[in-house]
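re: the backbone from monday

yeah here it is again, tokenized this time
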């Protein structure tokens, strides 16, 4: 699994021309699910995301976590994180999990995050044509690949 995490002051996702979900301070998490991913990848990434200390503390240092600032998460499925551009100009998505495999892992990811932060988790809709708008705070953008733990 791959994630791109953006620290935001606000964000929303639109589907069919209407705001589907929105958050204030927190993270927009773009989640890509690959063919070899499983629940271990979910647990690893959830722990990393929830533990990231990238919010400013009372001294202005990036030292606080999502919980410390009562932050929210807007989770967006993003199979294009598995784009391969090795050959030609048209990306290949052969390493992305097909929907039949990805949807249950996406739903499990939601469940794991909700266990920790409850209603502070908002989502898009898997497979929908989504328009995501955000104000990247900092900017702070972090990538994590569950297969690169070392």
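seq for it, each position gets an aa:
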């Amino acid at each position: 699994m791959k994630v791109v995490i953006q620290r935001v002051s606000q964000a929303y996702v639109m589907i069919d021309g209407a705001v589907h979900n929105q958050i204030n301070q927190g993270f927009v998490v773009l989640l890509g699910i690959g063919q070899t991913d499983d629940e271990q990848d979910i647990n690893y990434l959830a722990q990393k995301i929830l533990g990231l200390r990238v919010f400013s503390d009372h001294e202005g240092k990036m030292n606080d976590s999502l919980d410390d600032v009562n932050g929210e998460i807007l989770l967006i499925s993003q199979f294009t994180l598995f784009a391969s551009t090795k050959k030609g100009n048209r990306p290949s998505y052969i390493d992305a999990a097909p929907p039949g495999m990805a949807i249950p892992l996406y739903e499990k990811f939601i469940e794991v995050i909700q266990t920790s932060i409850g209603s502070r988790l908002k989502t898009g809709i898997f497979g929908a044509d989504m328009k995501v708008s955000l104000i990247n705070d900092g900017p702070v953008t972090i990538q994590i690949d569950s297969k690169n733990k070392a």
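Helices lie at 39-51, 99-117. The mean pLDDT is 97.
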